[in-house]
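Escalated from tier 1: iron/sulfur cluster holo job.
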Amino acid sequence: MKVAVDRDHCIGAGNCAMTAPSVFDQDADEAIVILLTDSPPDSEQDAVQQAVDRCPAAVIRLLP
Ligand code: SF4
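Tier 2 regenerated the structure:
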């Protein structure tokens, strides 16, 4: 599984970091998403999919 985020369009809602904290963090100043790994283990797949579904700005993508 590969993950990508568009930091330019992140609105800092933080749902991703709450849903999959081993994959997503947030910048301390602006709360913009930080991708901790672009290749999460399969055990994180459900959490990452939930983060995709819950991102209000739709800036998280799963890549083939
Ligand atoms: S849920 Fe989406 S908008 Fe919110 S911090 Fe994460 S990537 Fe940014």
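The chain has two helices and four strands.
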